[in-house]
Amino acid sequence: MEPRLELPQGTLDLLILKVVALQALHGWAISERLQQVSRDAIQVQQGSLYPALHRLERKGWLKAKWAISENNRRAKYYELTSRGRAHLAAETVEWRKLTEAVDHVLGMA
Q: How many helices (H) and strands (E) does the chain have?
């Protein structure tokens, strides 16, 4: 198993917004989904996840509501707002530009 990746600052927010854009999820499910989709390379600890969720909620990019989870427990579900969807789209474009530029530099002969 490869060691887990350290995310550059700001990346966790982008990843959370992307995961939640697909469906409303509670915190633990967001963490699990990121780990699953990244093939275990990204493992977000609660100490990083919940502050990020609260920050995104304060910025108006996520909204939360309480509901019953799949294991019959009360959980706070997060979903993307229209402002969050617009921010995700803009950040995705910027991320792709940045990674393309980094790839070009790393690929120099």
A: 4, 3
List the structure tokens of 21.
């854009």
How do 62-68 and 25-26 pair as beta strands? unpaired
Please name the helix (run of DSSP H) or strand (run of DSSP E) that holds residue 42, with its range, or none: none
The CB density around residue 25, as the number of other CB atoms within 10 Å, is 19
Domain segments of the chain: what residues? Answer: 11-106
State the CATH class of domain 11-106. mainly alpha
Dihedral sign of CA atoms 17, 23, 24, 26 in order: negative
- Across 58-81, average pLDDT: 95
Beta bridge partners of 68: 74
Whole-model pTM: value is 0.89
Distance, in Å, from the CA atom of 26 to the CA atom of 66, rounded to the nearest integer, reads: 9
